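Late entry, zinc ion complex.
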Amino acid sequence: MSSTTENYLKKIFAASESSDKELVGLGELAQALSVTPGTVTTMMKSLSEAGLVDYRPRAGVALTARGRREALNVVRRHRLIELFLVEVLELDWADVHEEAEVLEHAISDRLLNRIDEILGYPASDPHGDPIPDSRGRLPGPVGTTLADVTAPATVRIVRVEHHEESGFLDFLKEAGLVPGTQITLVERNRAAGTVLVEADETPRAVSLQVARKLRVEVVKPGRK
Ligand SMILES: [Zn+2]
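Prediction complete; structure with ligand written out below:
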């Protein structure tokens, strides 16, 4: 399968995961892939002929069962590679996404399974994104976004969504807002559009925009 095909499947998968609509719009896809709508239409016709997508002209597109399996396989490679680069090669978590975007298309199954084994069959990547297992099973979303939690509460960060921008990840690391960390959500300030959190005893105001990208599990509602 070509890397272009793999990237299309991955984007359709990501778009359908982040919405509850049945079909992904072609305009949305064109924007996500930075290509023209015409290019997407041509590609959808050929992916449809290959049995990877269900393409309904003017309505949108969905992955077929086979397309979803292939997409999950790319997602699995991407996330395992990211974890390998952080855990074994000790790269910064802000730098691994770009590398994984390239390597995910090149790595053999044998090498990937060895990485999986060396890492002890991990459940999530450095950003907390779940890793599909070798049979293509993906655990459902965990927790809720920090923006949706009622303050005050003690929460544990489990996942960073939309981690493509390395500057955002640099900020989170510096602020101590990384998966696995327990923080206190002190209060929410609707007027300012911020939430006040406390990580390592240090209070910090975080915008709701950032809070929406952090998935957390509530450890304990109320104050400590
Ligand atoms: Zn990534």
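The CA atoms of residues 52 and 67 lie 4 Å apart. Will revisit in the morning.
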